[in-house]
Amino acid sequence: MDRPLSQAGLSPEQLDPTAPTPLYHQIYLVLREKIRSGEFPADSVMPGEQELSRLFDVSRITVKRALNELAAHDLVSRHRGRGTVVTASAALPQVHGSFDNLIDSLKTLGLETQVQVLELSDLPAPPAVAALLDLEPGAPVQRAVRLRKLAGEPFSYLIQYMPADIAARIGRDDLESVPMLVLLERAGVVPYEAEQWITAVAAEPHIAVALDLGSGSPLLRIERVMRDKAGRAVQLIHAHYRPDRFKYHMRSNRKGASNWRTEG
After folding, report:
1. Cα–Cα distance between 103 and 109 in angstroms, integer?
2. Taking phi first (over 0 means left), then psi (-120 to 50 degrees means alpha), and beta for anything else, what does residue 210 get?
3. For the CA atoms of 209, 206, 119, 230, what is the dihedral angle to 10 degrees?
4. Is the pLDDT of residue 99 over 50?
């Protein structure tokens, strides 16, 4: 049975009339996140056009365009007399990472998602990049910008740097079809350990566009350095993840009198 929804925290404050993104698409993004978070569950009935128009303080035509966009992405179905119903397939899958099994998790991530190369260039390593890769500033590196998708939807925006001698053994087409860790192993580089830093950032405009989010939306940012068994840094990546599609799991327990052990 279809379950009706209330206004569920919708308001004009969630929209930015000065942003370049059209209002109907901003409404679409707000409603989409409520659907994907489960706040608007499958088989529930969305608020009607008139109610949404009042809640967002926009025209009914604007709301109708937003609902039509939800329907075009198979997030809702629209029925005369029943209203707009959240589809059973609306909830998106998530990828879960583990600190304890990071290498295996990254391999799985590469196998379960699709990658599009947006930029690929050779350049002198900027000082910050050189420091993390243990290179001299200005040493040749390859910079690759990739968009990763899960179930056809944008999932993460990746900026990768590799020493030029390693990058020369990996083709552009392979970057879109083969998991990165597999490519490194094929190139004769076996990743052995990873060091990473995790934080939350606001999406810059170009990253927001690529991930189909509003500018300034929260992202999970992971900076990761991969090293081989000899300790050589073989890859640096700045990964920006949509938090609704990716999460890390970590559990800690006490070991001994005062020490804590962390488990992925």
Report:
1. 10
2. alpha
3. -110
4. no
**Higher pLDDT pick, 182 / 160:** 160
What's the token pair of residue 7?
A: 């206004």
**Rounded distance between C-alpha atoms, residue 183 and residue 187, angstroms:** 6
Going by pLDDT thresholds of 50, 70 and 90, the confidence category of residue 237 is very high
The token pair at 114 is 């699709």
Kindly give, in sequence order, each residue whose CB lies less than 8 Å from that of residue 249, ignoring residues fewer than 6 positions away. Answer: 96, 97, 98, 264
Q: How far apart, in whole angstroms, are the C-alpha atoms of residue 82 and residue 2?
A: 9
CA separation (Å) from 154 to 65, 72, 209, 240?
Answer: 22, 16, 10, 11
What's the pTM?
0.61
* Of 85, 82, 71, nearest in space to 40 by CA: 85
